[in-house]
Amino acid sequence: MGAGAVDTGTIGAAFVAKAINVGGRNVILGIWDTAGSERYEAMSRIYYRGAKAAIVCYDLTDRSSFDRVKFWVNELQNFEENCRIYICGTKSDLVENDKSMRQVDFHDVQDYADEIKAHLCETSSKTGQSVDELFQKVAEDYVNYSDFQVQSEPKGVDLNSRRDLTSYTCCHH
Ligand SMILES: Nc1nc2c(ncn2[C@@H]2O[C@H](COP(=O)(O)OP(=O)(O)OP(=O)(O)O)[C@@H](O)[C@H]2O)c(=O)[nH]1
């Protein structure tokens, strides 16, 4: 955000594509950063529909933000059963510098993450701590566990193949 800009929070969503190497294979993650506010709940649903993974973030220095995590996790469990969930505590730089700033206990969240079978991490956008590791994990899980495998995609039609040509011209008059 530029100097003097007014922070209105995310409205709608922002998109970025990120290439990640998993065992020599290039995986392109399409990442939608959706608004955290429940005000935009219906709109956010449009963006995460069909998602294979969701990183649900909360602010380690704000207890109420963790309560909202539960709201979004319920949403995902109800509407996106094939979506893997990652729970992410943000602003880890602040709690590392001053432990009294921490409002959400790591072990409490770990218990919750275990319960819902989610991966948990704590990151900092400011220092970059654990951010790359988290996206790497998302990409690796996608490759290793996803039921959608690129190799199992149906092959395209080979227009030079006689067999294919025959089958695709048989209905012509
Ligand atoms: N110290 C510190 N501040 C951060 C960090 N991440 C975000 N902030 C600050 O927190 C405020 C909110 O950051 P945003 O990235 O807009 O938060 P958000 O969760 O994306 O907000 P919504 O999209 O509206 O839900 C800004 O003032 C950021 O500078 C972090 O890792 N460390």
From TrEMBL:
It comes from Engystomops pustulosus (Tungara frog). The keyword Nucleotide-binding applies. PROSITE patterns: RAB, RAS. The keyword Chaperone does not apply. Keywords: GTP-binding, Nucleotide-binding. Coiled coil: none annotated. Signal peptide: none annotated. It comes from the Eukaryota. PANTHER family: PTHR47978. This is Ras-related protein Rab-24. GO terms for molecular function: GTP binding; GTPase activity.
